[in-house]
Amino acid sequence: MKIALNHCILVTIDKNDRVIRDGCIVFDQGEIQSVGPADQVTLSPDTKIIDGGGRLAVLPGFVDVHSHSSLLKGYSENLNLLDWLPVYQREHQVLTERDAYWAAMLSYLEALKGGTTTVLDMYRHPQRCAEAATALGLRAHIAPYVADRSDKTFFETLDSNEAFIKACHNSDHGRIKALVGLEHLFYCTPEAYRRAQAMARHYDVQVHTHTSELNSEVEAVEKQFGRRPIELLDDYGMIGPRTILAHCVWLNEHEERLLVDGGIAGIALCPTSNAKLAGGVPPYYRYKNSGITMGLGTDGSISNNSLSMWELMKFASLTQKNLLGNAAALPAPEVLRLATIDGAKLLKQDHLIGSLEVGKRADIITVDLWQPHLMPFIDDGDHDPLIWNLVYAARASDVRDVWVDGRPVIQGGRSVRVDEAQALADALAQTIDLLERRRTTGAVAMVK
Ligand SMILES: [Zn+2]
User: What is the dihedral of CA 260, 244, 112, 72, to 10 degrees?
Assistant: First the structure.
């Protein structure tokens, strides 16, 4: 069905960051057909018209480029990374397919309700994650947690990763993408990296891994392997155009040069999660000046407790200002681009998503501006406060409607694809079961 969002404020994120005050956007068969001032867009009689009455902002959906589904938000707080890792591993030692499905369902539902239409999720039992994304209508790029060191036998393997690529890559009309995922240098052998690269080339998919999140982690890698993390990853053939690296808070100039020379796909910055682990602030401007593509990642509900890209944008912007002692650093329009079109570029999807432009897929969200915390949004001719107030004041709960590929997935703030109350009850029941199994590692898992 052809849909028009009329008399809305369109935040296009096109190359000129055009904001159209009394705008109209029309989409049909999943594709954006017109974007322009309301008085210049012709509406055919078969169009379903949603009249925003000047009170709705329309934006492209957010792209969260690094997340981890989980059922265990809030169960591993106040821990430094080295104390946190055993807790995290205990979860994975008992994690079943059913846990993964409900973790993905819960995480993806939270993401969608906040206006995120694409997630790069690194998690377990990826087929089940793909099922949850398909049920909800989310665009999901899924990277399994692969590990192959002898003491890490409870993660995914490159064999299970390959099976996932064969089964799910480009499924749900191309909305599901499979990646090759590698947990970390401490979890994977050199052979795993080499095979991962060969697999990515063979199936033409991206590769995703974590690195250089904490200074102490970099020191530990140097101590164990005698090389800095990016140097080691480069030795393993990992620094190339298919690879997306999460974090990269602690790179020296040589490592940064290796990323540029290797033509890396880009970096997923996770400033909130970095702050929560007291890991530092990613050097955004260094990478920007080197021409490295970056997007924003929540890092999932365990490391962040919130999958809101609104919160993440504000935090990313304010931490750069504070770090650099410069109130003009990472301004709202720029951080909004990081959360949308730049994230799409990182995933090699910017020809399809990330902005409101004719010919792109209709991944669209509306924000209800008629609320005290979003007033005012009037352009006085000298200054338009809209983007600033959206980035610094809007909340995930302000998102009213979400379409992915032109299909309604959230309407009036609620999923139209799953029974939310039932999904929450099922996810909670599964969490109780997982917590019990985690307490008594080795107990028989609840099976579907
Ligand atoms: Zn992560």
Answer: -130
